[in-house]
Amino acid sequence: MIIVREVAQLRQAIAERRQLGTNRAKAEYGSAAIQQHTVGFVPTMGYLHEGHASLMQKARELSDTVVLSIFVNPIQFGPNEDLDSYPRDEARDLEVARREGVDIVFLPTVAEMYPQPTRTKIHVSALTERLCGASRPGHFDGVTTVVAKLFNMVNPDLAFFGMKDAQQVAVLQQMVTDLNMNVTIVPCPIVREADGLALSSRNVYLSAEQREQALVLSQSLRKVREVSEDAVQNSFTIGQIHQMVESTITSSPLADIDYIEILTFPGLEPILAEQRLSDVQEDIIVALAVKFGNTRLIDNIRLQKAEVLSHV
Ligand code: PAF
């Protein structure tokens, strides 16, 4: 596994891997049948857990070369957010990367990523105005800007992102389409603990009591799944589902709700509260952000239209 900290080294290491693949293909198949060498990219902020591992596994499965970046990106944190205390453990992260068969790890410093004050920002409109975009102003501009920079450095064919940050996936997909970036975004399923808690680097901040009560998030989403699969209950309206989720979450005295929203996905358009679940003609996302003490957790469930039983 190659570990690099500078952009020039990263480009060099990737160029060598691509060249190697091309040479091998030439030798095996002749110059007329050069196969593409696929570079898969997993951008992260480190403190890697099984959710990240699942992204690396998918990347390993689909790519010839797997590149992992670990960079806690300051420009996606607000002034009162947890940039300074964001958990970091480089040695353990490198072990996880090695175990998952990563080829190249990029570990830049802030100065390497932002050698001068950034005057260029990427802003995706509309999709960033709701959910986490509303509670964390400027957050998604920081995400799209750093991901665009990383895409320009790595030049990946495929890039892997977890659906726990479903809005991030929708926003990045929009950016890639709008700017004709030559990369395919591969969304990967949410990974949960055995008791349902969605994996997050921020889970380490939770006290034992907060962690116990945080299970209301996945419990409320499980109820949504059950409703969608039940031929009688899926005639519930969006308003009723919202209420059901809210009452499950407020059963935890420590839960402080930031948002509960039911929107179309990936368009993130609001759905009328009176509309029946089974009548919505698009995929739906039920997205939550809830604080336990200072720790803000997000979770969501996506209901694909085909999965919602038709209303009878
Ligand atoms: O999802 C994350 O960890 C970050 O938002 C990302 C995509 C690595 C950009 O900093």
From TrEMBL:
Keywords: ATP-binding, Cytoplasm, Ligase, Nucleotide-binding, Pantothenate biosynthesis. GO terms for molecular function: pantoate-beta-alanine ligase activity. It is found in: Cytoplasm. It comes from the Bacteria. Its EC number is 6.3.2.1. ATP binds at residues 45-52, 162-165, 191, 199-202. It catalyses: (R)-pantoate + beta-alanine + ATP = (R)-pantothenate + AMP + diphosphate + H(+). Homodimer. NCBIfam families: cyt_tran_rel, panC. This is Pantothenate synthetase.
